[in-house]
Amino acid sequence: MQTLTAHSDDLPSHDDVRAILDDWEYDSDERATDAYGMVREQKETLPWLADLVGAEKDLEWLVQPSCSIDALVPCPVIGQPGFVTFYHSPLLTTLHAIYTVLVGWFEARALIRHFCPSAYAECFLWAFKDCDYLHEAMTAGWRPLTMIELPSLLGDLKQRLAAFHQATQSGGCWERRRYLARKRDHNRWAATQLLEGLFDRHAKLLVVRVDVGYTEYAAPYMDASMVHQHRQRLCKAFHQHSLFTHLLGYIWKLEYGEYKGFHYHMLFFFDGSKVRQDVRYAQRIGEYWNTTITQGHGVYFNCNYRAEERYHANAMGLVTYHDAEKRQGLIHIIRYLTKIDEYATLTVHGDTFGHSQSPTPHRGFDAKPLGRPRRHASLT
After folding, report:
1. Strand 247-257 relative to strand 353-355, pairing
2. Is the N-terminal amide bond of 76 cis, ω within 30° of 0?
3. How many helices (H) and strands (E) in the chain?
4. pLDDT tens by residue, 168-203
5. Distance separating alpha carbons of residues 139 and 17, to the nearest angstrom
6. Nearest to 268 by CA among 279, 257, 252
């Protein structure tokens, strides 16, 4: 999988994370339909995502040499002579927050079977995973410390933080970060080139987005190999089924949700001068996934339905070459697809991000640009 560990200057803001969740997670009033026409109640797919992004940003701060246990100043507990607390310490609060996310989500839940943490997160777990004080704070909350306990605790935390700093400066950690950053940049460049190539050849694209996965009964039994076969079967249909006659290109991303299991986010780019009715196209693709590809075990969500009301940055439906707002929305989606796995690696064999070749002439379309030369430059 193309997995990335974030650079400090490339981490999304809180608003970016909220936009990601708004764009890609099902809201409570949304519904998906399975092959039998049954409406399935959707549970949150990645409820840990925002916390994981926050933990990664905290790790970027924690790795700085200025973060030192020597900066901890114990505060007397009012009404309890001989007891102190670090409850309001930014450093200890950060350690506690990171520990709760990484250990609480990835060590204590089923997600650990499918994900591994980022390079910095692995360093943190190596140094702090068996810290009794942080574990107690996570499970039972903060408790006051006696003056007798204080020196031992400070010594333990100081040693662990020093080990963390040393691990993050190791050659293995930095090499992994550089490798993953190169993967991210390559995927982002390739997907952007696909988009630009399509707009260079076509003045209008019909953008269709469909999330496809498995029913609550089938999802627990769908392993990565079976999911991969289903995706290959669908991609083969792009060249054979009449539904995809005017398909020009596509992007797909495999993800795993605690409740939904494996599922794909898929973007389709159809020739906008040949087809309309994006909502209907999304429905037909979803139904094809449910009934033909998965033999009745599938479920889909039509992202184009009421997209203008639902999404933070709507880029669905007909998008023209000069529609700066929607084209920027497509760039936002590409950035999301190539960024989100910087925080956790989906541990499956093979690619989890893919796209058609760029540019993608379809069924003998002339590769030469049509119409008058355009006056406006590309957005990217």
Report:
1. antiparallel
2. no
3. 11, 13
4. 999 999 998 888 888 888 889 999 999 999 999 999
5. 27
6. 252
